[in-house]
Amino acid sequence: MTEQPIIIDLGSSEIKSGFFGQSLPSVRFQNIIGEPFSKKVSPELTKKYYISSECDKYNNNLKIRYPIKRGIFCKDDDIQLIFEYIFNKMNLNTERIKEHPLLITEPINNKFSNSEKISEILFEKMNIPSLIFAKQPLLSLISTGYSTGVILESGSDITQSCVSYEGYLIENSFIRYDYGGKDITNILKVLINKRNPNIVNKYFDDIKVLNEIKEKQCYIKIIKDDNDDYISIDSEYILPDGYRLNLKDEKILAPEILFNNKLIYAEYQTFHEMIFNSINNADINIKNKLYKTVILSGGNTQFKGIEEKLKLQLSELIPKGVDIKIRTQINPELNCWKGGNIIASLNTFNKMVVNKKEWEEIGKNIIHIKNI
Question: Could you give phi then psi for residue 277, rounded to 5 degrees?
Fold first, then answer.
């Protein structure tokens, strides 16, 4: 008999994990791995790898990397490292891991080889009892209480959109591009560097400072009229040593790439184009209904002004008179994990998962047949 399912939202920037029934994930950590440059430089570095907050103490002596990029584990060895860290943070020993089914989130149109390798390591090396992979946009939609709608999910390095009708994803509507919050952070760094090269060199090797500037200072500019609150753009950000960094148009130009790809001469569909094209690929009879349920999810959808801008841009693409309703939630970066929690509550969940016997008898293809 298996115990409570574990829901694991595998983000490129942050991982969230927790048991079914919890209102919030009990474990959240930055998804980074640090490898020592040399033990000669710092003899106290006794481990081969440091994960997340373990890196803080030795940050200057570690080569920091993200084990997951654009939804894919870069190295097979990192899979076991990260899952062992998750289980350790959840106080699960080797025996207890054998008792808990896993629900693992993944982006749409992800490489099959990624979920196959994760499954292989979890079943054969970590002895989990069962697992299932679930598409992130569908989970996010479920978390909002809707079963029909169009979902735009944007995280640290993936933006994806698709249509769900009565709880079923319409595969023809899948659109995914590999850009997100990390790209905005990188552009912000470049823009600030143009006016403050010495400041960037001194502080911005630490990505946390840049991310905080992005999250607290950046916003989406909406042109309405001369009294628009978004017109005034100058502000200050106080750096760790007390230096006052003056911020100008970089705080609106960086997130503007979500609506204007010409700013960085890149070929990808913007937020409003992705939503429009996902809906366009759905049945004509449900299009108007979909525009009334446009769901924004993921940490990269939290910029001030994003709902107003998106509605404005969409209205220029669709016929006049079509009602558009943008629906957001508090803490949209948690939508996906919460949706997984709802799936795990279903009476049929234990029949939905791939168990170890099926994995051994049928092979790796079973995880693509039984998924959400």
Answer: -75, -35
**Is residue 35 within 8 Å of residue 58, measured between CB atoms?**
no
Is residue 53 within 8 Å of 41, Cβ to Cβ? no
Sign of the torsion angle spanned by Cα atoms 29, 331, 183, 254: negative
**Other Cβ atoms within 10 Å of 35 Cβ, number:** 15
Per-residue pLDDT tens digits of the chain, which is 372 residues long? 468 999 999 999 999 999 999 999 999 999 999 988 876 666 677 888 999 998 888 777 888 899 999 999 999 999 999 999 999 999 999 889 999 999 999 999 999 999 999 999 999 999 999 999 999 999 999 999 999 999 999 999 999 999 999 989 999 999 999 999 999 999 999 998 888 777 766 666 667 788 889 999 999 988 754 454 445 578 888 887 788 888 888 999 999 999 998 888 788 999 999 999 999 999 999 999 999 999 999 999 999 999 999 999 999 999 888 999 999 888 999 999 999 999 999 999 999 999 999 999 999 999 999 998
- What b/e readout covers 120-143, taking b as 16+ CB neighbours within 10 angstroms? ebbbeebebbbbbbbbbbbbbbbb
What's the CA gap between 360 and 358, in Å, rounded? 5
Q: For residue 250, give Cα distances in angstroms to 98, 124, 270.
A: 50, 49, 19
For residue 274, the tally of other CB atoms under 10 A from its CB is 22
Closest CA to 80 of 113, 116, 118: 118
CA distances, 302 to each of 156, 183, 259, 297, 308 (Å): 12, 15, 14, 9, 12
Compute CA 78 distance to the chain's CA centroid, rounded to the nearest angstrom: 19
CB-based contact 83:68 (threshold 8 Å): no
Which residue in 287, 290, 324 sits closest to 309, CA to CA?
324
Cα-trace Rg, the chain: 22
According to DSSP, residue 219 is labeled B
Give CA–CA dist 18/24, Å, rounded. Answer: 7
The model's pTM: 0.91
What percentage of the chain's residues is helix, strand, coil (to nearest 5)?
40, 20, 40
